[in-house]
Amino acid sequence: MIITTIDTIADKKIVKTLGLAKGNTIRARHAGHDIMAELKNFVGGEISDYTKMIAEAREQAIDRMIDNAREMGANAITGVRFTTSSVMQGAAELLAYGTAVIIE
């Protein structure tokens, strides 16, 4: 599966547009990690536990978007974007979406 953030794929022709492909996940913070994050606020620096959590959420959302595109018969996804939204206090959704296409 070819995935790109632009609307075209170099040296490929889009022969059919299938529609919106999407994948999401919702992650909640962990109280133990929040304590460490608060300590980092005092001394500064990266909060690596949250960095890891967001990276894992992004990969899961991408995997789900790819699965959705494959179900539609796509072999590529163009115009991929990411968005986040708060679902409740301490939990956020990460959504990956793009256009499922068939290329040759």
List keywords for this structure.
104 residues, alpha+beta, Translation Initiation Factor IF3, 2 helices, 4 strands, elongated
Task: Report what the structure shows.
This protein is α+β, with helices and mostly antiparallel strands and 104 residues long. It has a single domain, classed as Hypothetical protein apc22750. Chain B (Translation Initiation Factor IF3). Helix content is 37%, strand content 41%. It contains two helices and four strands; from the N terminus they run E-E-H-H-E-E. It has helices at residues 31-43, 48-72, and strands at 2-3, 14-28, 76-88, 91-103. The chain has a four-stranded mixed β-sheet with strand order 1-3-4-2. Strand 3 (76-88) and strand 4 form a beta hairpin. The longest helix is centred in the middle third of the chain and has 25 residues, at 48-72.
